[in-house]
Amino acid sequence: MNNLLRNTDIKYLRGIGPKRAELLEKNLGIRTYHDMLYHFPTHYIDRTTIRRIRDFEGEDMAAVQVRGQFVSFNTIGEGAKMRLVGLFSDGSGTMEVVWFQRVKSLRELYHTHTEYTLFGKPSVFNGRWSMVHPEIDPPGAPLASGGFRGVYPLTEQLRNRGFSSRTFATAAAEILAGARYIPETLPEHIVNRYGLLDLRTALTVIHTPPSMAMLDRARLRLKFEELFYLQLDIQRYARRRSSSTQGFMFGHIGQFFNNFYSQFLPFPLTGAQKRVIKEIRADMGTGRQMNRLLQGDVGSGKTLVALLTMLIALDNGYQACLMAPTEILATQHYETIREMVAPMGINVRLLTGSTRKKERDVIDAQLQDGSLHILIGTHAVIEDRVKFHNLGYVVIDEQHRFGVAQRARLWTKNVIPPHVLVMTATPIPRTLAMTVYGDLDVSVIDELPPGRKPVQTLLRYDENRLSTYQGIARQLKMGRQVYIVYPLINENEKLDLRSLEEGYENICEIYRDYRVAYVHGRLKPEEKDYQMSIFASGEAQILVSTTVIEVGVNVPNATTMLIENAERFGLSQLHQLRGRVGRGEGQSYCILMTKRKIAKDTRRRLELMTATTNGFEIAEADMQMRGPGDIEGTMQSGIPFDLHIANLATDGQIVQMARDAACEVLDADPDLTSPANAILPRQLALLNSRIRDWSRIS
Ligand code: ADP
Ligand code: MG
Questions:
Q1: What is d(CA 348, CA 338) in angstroms, rounded to the nearest whole number?
Q2: Domain-located, residue 676
Q3: Residue from 554, 577, 578, 585 to probe ligand 1 pocket by mutation (most atoms less than 8 Å from CB)
Q4: Residues 485, 417 within the same domain
């Protein structure tokens, strides 16, 4: 049944055989009937439409269908360079049809004065239209046999070996015709309730849609199924854990919290800070383990929330730990927090990759005898050798750089897993959050501290350089500090580094009266720290850097940021960078410097930056423009299994629908034991071969 499709080797399919099977596996990972059935077209061409060659236009034409005859054939070149060129006419005009492979056999296969239907992507070569390796229907093939023709993802090698979209459509049809029984993979009650197509119909339609309306229904069914199982998995996991995972009971608020709150709080909390602290406090008091995501735009004051809630852990006799993605950030947290709590006799230490042995030993000893209250660091803090006396609470800053597996290691740090707060400034669209963070509860700081003026963002071109530099000079004269950011992108690191160095020299030259600090990822940690520290302390007024300052760095007196080659940054990155300014009272500026000629998309991106400072708006736009792939990627994909057809960026409504359906099922049948749901645990097990329970990952 289901297994039959999954277990039958594709080589047994008519028209495939062992050789082509091998190619399929190598190129597309297709090994079984099931794989073949789930290799879907990416788009479709209306088979009822025949285009006229005379009407071809544009640089980047989509694939089209034409019908006509070959006027002549010519073999050109020799050996490896040999190609076959057919002159093809449809009565309205002519084009060249070119083959680079199988020249001899094709020459015999096709004839002049015979009507063929060709299907391919026209392009202009040497001033005339041509089509390379088109698909060709046999003479007399019925036209408009209805519906649409799928265009399948193919590799160059497969194309050269004679594979075409038709091969895949035929193979799928062959499998569907031969399979007496395609077992339904969703429970009947769900199919009925949501009016979905049954699986066989959906698969038939997705390969050869009779109409666009049917195609939409087939896609809905298949996307829904993927997202439904994803949500079911996430929801089941979250429910099971929240009902069963014992957590520390932080029952009371004591000296540390109260003293700090009444005496050392540097400023009144914003309403949003108060609210999320309450949420966290309530969570910590339930006796169940907390897993909470704290979202708050850059500059919204997450650090203070982290600190106050860590004090609750301390008040209850536990240690706390704060983990940051970079050394710079960890150091900065350490300094801010130490300064704030030092008067209260709280012992805070910093552990990073570059912590000296002597200090490490002190940390180890104090961690184990319990005299170290708060440990702050990079992921060095989750290494196995780091042993706590009684770790009760972990805060992870800027989660997107920590993978799920890394988070999981925290669970082994105490007999009962510590409460976990994940803080992120990367606003993620709701539907993505539902999926990537589906197992976390969410708190949002949706308010900036009072008195903040939104950063003014300006788009500037090379020819405005002089006035831009003058503007910066005015800020410096007022005693403000300035960031100058250069892109550093790995592929071309040497070149980038050079432009960074040149930029640095140039800036030193222009602003001779000021001290310029200089940071990039290649510097030794000590050097980096030193450079950062002279900027943070105000000794240096300008910081020339790469994106290493992207996350978290906090220098409220820095009011201007100049971003060079802004066109090379993504939206989210620009937003993160810009968050470094606008942290104090003064009006801040972010200048996006770019060349005059930039692509349309790029201009749209940069213009959006000048139009809004709202992180959620930017995140939405970013996802629309880039698709969720990148975003998922940077999050190390918190998703348990791959999505094949559904798209988190564009299928928001289906995500919601799938989530509702999954929740309903679990509300009624938490353990999925009802006979009506018999298929669910089986499908989940099949899909979900990866270990999901973090508590069991060591
Ligand atoms: P982020 O959420 O980006 O990590 P931070 O915690 O670094 O933000 O806070 C940004 C700045 O705002 C810091 O300078 C911090 O001292 C300040 N800040 C935080 N909370 C408040 C508040 N309630 N009122 C005024 N300033 C605050
Ligand atoms: Mg921060």
A1: 6
A2: no
A3: 554
A4: no
